[in-house]
Amino acid sequence: MEEREGEVRWDGLCSRDAAARAAALDTIGQAVLRRAESIASGAAAEGLPVPAARDGLGEVLARLLMLSKRCPFPDVREQSEAILSGVQELGIRIPRPLGHGPSRFIPEKETIQVGKEDATMHTLFAESFATLGRLDNVTLVMVFHPQYLESFLKTQHYLLQMDGPLPLHYRHYIGIMAAARHQCSYLVNLHVNDFLHVGGDPKWLNGLENAPQKLQNLGELNKMLAHRPWLITKEHIEQLLKTEENSWSLAELIHAVVLLTHYHSLASFTFGCGISPEIDCEGGHTFRPPSVSNYCICDITNGYHGVDEIHASPAGSIPSTESVCEVEALMEKMKQLQECRDEEEASQEEMATRFEREKRESMFVCSSEDEESAATRDVSRHFEDTSYGYKDFSRHGMHVPTFRVQDYSWEDHGYSLVNRLYPDVGQLLDEKFHIAYNLTYNTMAMHKDVDTSMLRRAIWNYIHCMFGIRYDDYDYGEINQLLDRSFKVYIKTVVCTPEKTTKRMYDSFWRQFEHSEKVHVNLLLVEARMQAELLYALRAITRYMT
Fold first, then answer.
1. Active site residues
2. Span 457-487, pLDDT tens digits
3. CB crowding 66-91: b at 16 or more within 10 Å, else e
């Protein structure tokens, strides 16, 4: 529904002032009910049954449905529900949510319920709602780890909304370009709305070729960062900075690179945790009535199945002996490795050999479910060269030198470069990397007081190993001891081809661990992937500058 005079305006709804929110919702309610009454009376005058919502009313009702379920402010939830009831009383069908909660992989009852959160989480929810105008499903899954979520929201807010080299509509368009590389319609839909909200030209959404040449020129860097960052050279950077009419400044390019890597890795999180479509977005709601069994064919075609089928765990609700043994075996291996570390240390030559072996073996880790996914037209039009995807870096005889962290690291090189060209962002990213890497509750499944640092480091370094990045002081022999095949398949899929992640993959690793622990794994994957992409891009920028 267009925001014509006297019609629906959402201004003031995100206010922290309850009176301002109430006034905004009163105005919204009056506009919605006027439109609904007009539709109902028009149908009655013609002796017709009341039609479904039309003329944009459906979109407004979907937004109200989202607010009634997902707003952290109880007054907004209640008023939104009352407006929907008023519309329903006029005989107009109102929408209902599709799916079951913020994640298709995690039972809704095991996620944090809006309205039942503690004070710390409520503050985070309110902050997120005030900033984004919604409490999105990513936030509702990330909130398993409030310390990380706070850092993530602060960083994302700075990148998208605070002072910076790029105009606001460019930022959202770059987010669309990045998410589209992984066919992540969830993120694309959110940023299409945000792009239009900040005054972006709707024509740009018809395809990348309709965007300014400056943004089109970013397409090559976008696809390499997303799929083969090891191929980025200083020549690619030079091409962007020295194009006469449509050149990027160094500060603009740093901003763009951080946005691209942020949304590539956020696409990994979205697929890795099975994030559901937002209630008010396509695929998140339906106007069809539920069947008697609350299970109808329209749900199936949208990818939603019965709640029991969706959330049935392969191990069932009772811990199987096999999965309990899996946890015990992993803890025993950690203990043995620690003892070996204390007794002897491998030579540098042996450490290098073990890295090369792990790097080579990572090429052959793939899922039996591995299939080419065709990008939907709506998403693929936001990027060029749809056939360009992830390729293992040393396949087909192509050799890429190992990236040694001792020669170029985030701490000693990348951090200062980002902070110099885009002040404060280096600090925000550094804090987020550290929180993800060091986050621990000293638990493993049902065990408490466990030092998980060895396991967290193995996950982080395995991801960097897949990107050819080597730490001289790490024994890569530990990875094969700690990460089994099903876990490696999940990691590689989520990091390299996230759009191919399935619930079966999510269920098949760490079967006795909590969902919060699997989300924790995804935070490590997100940040390790983002840092790997940044290292390649920032090294190329540094080489260009010197």
1. 184
2. 999 999 999 999 999 999 999 999 999 989 9
3. bbbbbbbbeebbebbeebbebbeeee
